[in-house]
Write a structure and sequence with these properties.
It is built from 3 helices and 3 strands, in the order E-H-E-H-H-E. The chain is of the alpha+beta class.
């Protein structure tokens, strides 16, 4: 898929937001994911579409791309999110039934 020259990893979205962190404690990446969730919920409330593009993380953490985007070398890209105005209705994604490992009585 990535070798296809017509593949557009960011799906022609109007905006790319990259949440980054400077590793400093155990939970900084978790904080980025929590911020991403809030950002995406706010975008939805405003009628915008959003999607995490996890397959772009490795490329975003190369020095060449960091330099191009102005991300300092000591920071790590954690969550790339695209935002844009939806083209129309999006079908619900099918979900697997959850696996319950234990139930507390």
């Amino acid at each position: 898929m990535f070798a296809n020259p017509d593949f557009n990893i960011f799906h022609d979205a109007g905006t790319l937001i990259v949440l980054c962190t400077k590793p400093s404690s155990t939970f900084v990446e978790a904080d980025c994911w929590l911020a991403a969730e809030n950002l995406m919920l706010a975008a939805c409330a405003l009628g915008l579409g959003s999607c995490v593009i996890g397959s772009a993380v490795a490329a975003l953490n190369t020095l060449q791309i960091k330099d191009k985007l102005g991300i300092p070398a000591e920071f790590s890209a954690v969550v790339p999110i695209i935002l844009g105005v939806p083209n129309g209705e999006t079908n619900a994604t099918p979900r697997n039934e959850p696996i319950v490992l234990a139930q507390v009585q």
